[in-house]
Write a structure and sequence with these properties.
The structure is a single chain. The chain is built from 6 helices and 5 strands. The chain is α+β, with helices and mostly antiparallel strands. The chain has a 3-stranded mixed beta sheet. Helix 5 links the parallel strand 3 and strand 4. Helix 5 runs antiparallel to helix 6.
């Protein structure tokens, strides 16, 4: 059974918190901490994606900059380009993208509109659920009279 990103978002939900590129990193850090999330898509309208700002961006800025990172605008530290996926992408395709690009968050687009975001944790959880369903199906098959 091939799991699609749309299946994962049905279970996870499609709520996405975004931030404006003109917001300060202080605001971004507060949102990341308050919502216990690892990344924020940067968007002027909540639909298009201008960039993404993650915990990794914060750490990188803190490690190289002697000025107050919190006062900087998000657009100075956000990552571009943003790697995205479509609702019909498969779990395996998005996991491969994350591994290849060394990223932990992938916004989901439908007709160039932001409709969700997935973390590596979301994908691992989905894969574990998928493996459990496959195990149950195999156990049922082996226990069935047709197999014996």
């Amino acid at each position: 059974m091939t799991m699609k990103i749309s299946d994962i978002l049905k279970e996870k939900g499609s709520e996405v918190t975004t931030i404006s590129s003109s917001a300060t990193m202080r605001e971004a850090i507060r949102i990341l901490a308050a919502k216990r999330i690892g990344a924020l898509p940067v968007s002027s309208d909540g639909k298009s994606i201008d960039g993404i700002v993650s915990e990794r961006d914060v750490i990188t800025a803190l490690s190289t900059d002697d000025t107050d990172v919190r006062a900087k605008p998000v657009h100075e530290l956000m990552t571009t380009p943003v790697y995205t996926c479509a609702l019909d992408a498969t779990l395996q395709e998005v996991m491969a993208l994350m591994i290849e690009r060394r990223i932990r968050h992938v916004p989901v687009l439908e007709d160039a509109v932001l409709v969700g975001i997935l973390s590596i944790g979301d994908l691992v959880n989905a894969r574990l659920r998928q493996a459990e369903v496959e195990r149950e199906q195999m156990a049922e098959y082996i226990a069935s009279p047709a197999y014996n």
